[in-house]
UniProtKB/TrEMBL annotation:
Modified how: Binds 2 heme C groups per subunit.
Disordered: annotated span: 36-56
N-terminal signal peptide: 1-25
Protein name (record): Periplasmic nitrate reductase, electron transfer subunit
Cellular component, GO annotation: periplasmic space
GO molecular function: metal ion binding
Organism: Piscinibacter aquaticus
Length: 151
């Protein structure tokens, strides 16, 4: 009987001690600060004031597999399943006349490595990887350094 009573009191004391440790933590509110600020997820923030830069030389890349940035304004460029405005200048047949950068040969391969005579459907929508250069400021401070091989 004594051992059983001792275990009851020990268990009760343990539960009491644990409860007193957890109670203050439940009262403290944690303030999280994300990039959205106080804006609820169901609502969009106003776009940051920046503008696409006009035509200029292509920017240097910061990491090895970085897709090139678009060095010109793309406002009004249409890319649908039937038409891609980018190909008016960047298609291999037109690039030599327009002076634009030709589409990379990697864009003519399927996922399985098969070579196509036209842009692969998985690479057709340019802006899923390539973005226009802007004068936007970084959203968070950072000390990012370019890949050593690109310096």
């Amino acid at each position: 009987m004594r051992v059983r009573d001792f275990l009851k009191y020990a268990l009760a004391a343990g539960i009491f001690a644990l409860g007193t440790q957890l109670a203050p933590a439940a009262d403290e509110t944690v303030q999280l600060k994300g990039l959205r600020g106080g804006t609820p997820v169901t609502q969009d923030n106003a776009p940051v004031a920046s503008h696409q830069e006009r035509d200029h030389p292509v920017a240097d890349r910061d990491f090895v597999q970085q897709p090139p940035l678009i060095p010109h304004n793309t406002a009004g460029y249409q890319i649908t399943k039937n038409y891609n405005k980018c190909m008016d200048c960047h298609a291999w047949q037109k690039a030599k006349y327009t002076g634009a950068t030709k589409v990379s040969v990697t864009h003519f391969r399927t996922r399985e490595g098969q070579e196509l005579d036209n842009i692969s459907p998985r690479r057709y929508f340019c802006t899923q990887c390539h973005v226009p250069q802007t004068d936007a400021k970084p959203l968070v401070e950072n000390n990012f350094k370019r890949a050593r091989g690109l310096q």
